[in-house]
UniProtKB/TrEMBL annotation:
This is Uncharacterized membrane protein YoaK, UPF0700 family. Keywords: Membrane, Transmembrane, Transmembrane helix. It comes from the Bacteria. It comes from Prosthecobacter debontii. The chain crosses the membrane at residues 12-31, 59-78, 141-158, 170-189, 195-214. PANTHER family: SLR0142 PROTEIN, UPF0700 TRANSMEMBRANE PROTEIN YOAK. Pfam families: DUF1275.
């Protein structure tokens, strides 16, 4: 059961999910039609490439996976803990994510696969920034866990069992953020192309500044 969720957690979770939705839809609409924010489909495609003895595709999908994992390593090195807590170096991680997303724009615009790798690294970094809060798992770049929790809660409700209302709200929050990010990303992609990624890059940079300011105000109290 989630004991409490400060307002900055609700806001941050929604913003990060929105960013995840934007980045992923750009990858799916781009020249490789490649999912970026999660690795389930990519791992399946890696398996298919290995089975087909397609060396180039095998290296590509392995590179996407490796880039995502590299982002999680960077996050772990910077933040040093997976439990969400005010005061940790989220601002630094967000600025790094912003830089990686901005770097991916010219690379993707030139149809370079390295643009996918930098974007995947950014998403891995984001996903690893926060993995637990108040004993519950939090993910902002994919929704399988959120939809699984919704199904579990529905099953509990049908049995007359208690439902964790805060966890339920968190699921809806992250799903809505990711979905709306996808809508915004798709609409922007048709007008801006890969420059759409400058939008989440800007949001993460601003979030870093807001977080640092909020943290300093709280520390001064």
């Amino acid at each position: 059961m989630i004991s409490k969720l400060p307002r900055w957690v609700w806001t941050g979770a929604w913003i990060l999910a929105f960013i995840g939705g934007m980045v992923n839809v750009v990858g799916l609409l781009g020249f490789e039609h490649q999912a970026i924010t999660h690795l389930t489909g990519t791992t399946s495609m890696l398996g298919a490439a290995v089975a087909a003895l397609d060396g180039a595709r095998t290296l590509h999908f392995a590179a996407v996976i490796g880039s995502f994992v590299a982002g999680t390593v960077i996050s772990g090195y910077i933040i040093q803990d997976s439990t969400l807590k005010l005061g940790r170096r989220y601002g630094v991680a967000l600025l790094m994510e912003s830089a990686l997303l901005a770097l991916s724009v010219p690379l993707l615009s030139g149809q370079s696969l390295y643009g996918l790798y930098t974007a995947a690294c950014a998403c891995g970094l984001q996903n690893a920034m926060v993995t637990t809060y108040s004993g519950t798992v939090v993910r902002t770049t994919h929704l399988s866990g959120m939809f699984t929790d919704l199904g579990i809660f529905l099953g509990h409700a049908l049995r007359g069992l208690p439902v964790d209302q805060r966890r339920l709200r968190l699921c809806f929050l992250i799903i809505s953020g990711f979905l709306l990010g996808g809508v915004a990303g798709a609409a922007s992609f048709h007008r801006l192309g890969y420059a759409t990624l400058f939008i989440p890059a800007t949001i993460t940079a601003l979030a870093a500044l807001v977080y640092e300011g909020y943290h300093r105000r709280q520390a001064a109290k």
